Amino acid sequence: MAAPLPSLVDDNPRYMKSFQVFLDSSSEHQSIKAFINGPLAEILASIVKGKTALNVMGVGSGSGEIDLEILRQLQLQHPGAKVDNEVVEPSSDMLQKYKDLVAKTPDLDHVTFTWNNMKTSELEKDWKERNPEKKMDFIHMIQALYYVEDTEAAILFFQSLLEKNGKLLLILVSGEGSWAKLWKTYGLQFGKTDISQSVTMGDIRSLLDSRRIPYQKHELPSKMDITSCFTSGDEKGELLLDFLTEVPDFSKNASPELRAGVLDLLRGPDCTQEVDGRIIFNNNLEALLLGP
């Protein structure tokens, strides 16, 4: 039996480089920001109505750009409200980037930050010891459920922290998009089995439906240019392949058969279409909003 492939989440420098190439190649952040400043704005307005202080939590917040967009929208809805913002991020490098971003952002006078450099599983134990009675008005987990050991337990834990009118926002790749096709086909050959790397919003909706947990659904169209993946040795293309498969140096570490199969799937109509000579990957996302 072949040795398991290394995981990108265990190679932080390579992960940071590949993640940046992913952001540069995709419209993901633009799509999420459009949602925050569109449909989510009205929902946030209903949460802050009548409140002078808000408890907010970002789970898997990364380097903070999306978190700050949410905080700006909250402040637009209620300029005078004080915001207590809990940040949960296991990567020290990402957390430092977030702190640096906050230091350069002038319009956060009413926001205080609590930095939790830990995994969600560690947070649950820490929270019960530190803040057992504290409830949250808004919690967001944006592209974070891939890195938890038990998605159901994580969702139920964060849902349990919500105030009476609070909301939990989940954003993941669509269950019908190209990520789902790639990971349903090859995920068992790619990744670590102790985290939920291959989960999609289709899986989460099935889970919530089975427990009769109601939710609001929003679709977030997004795309990614992966043309460079098909030029052997192209640095940008190799980093994108690493991010798509969650395997560092995928082209070197994967068998020739696995690499060929992945590229063939990525080039096929189930995952991509050619637009003006570029190969465009379906990077569509879904957002779900849950109550307490």
Automatic annotation (TrEMBL):
| PROSITE patterns, A to Z | SAM_HNMT (PS51597)
Q: Which InterPro entries does this one have?
A: HHMT-like, SAM-dependent_MTases_sf
Q: How does it assemble?
A: Monomer.
The residues listed in the UniProt record as binding substrate, with positions renumbered to this chain, are 28, 283
Q: Where are the transmembrane segments?
A: none
Q: Which UniProt keywords apply?
A: Methyltransferase, S-adenosyl-L-methionine, Transferase
Name used for this protein in its record = Histamine N-methyltransferase
Gene Ontology terms, MF aspect:
N-methyltransferase activity
**Top-level division of the source organism's lineage:** Eukaryota
| Any one Gene Ontology BP term | methylation
Q: Which Gene3D superfamilies match?
A: Vaccinia Virus protein VP39 (3.40.50.150)
Q: Which Pfam families match?
A: Methyltransf_23
Recorded name of the encoding gene: HNMT
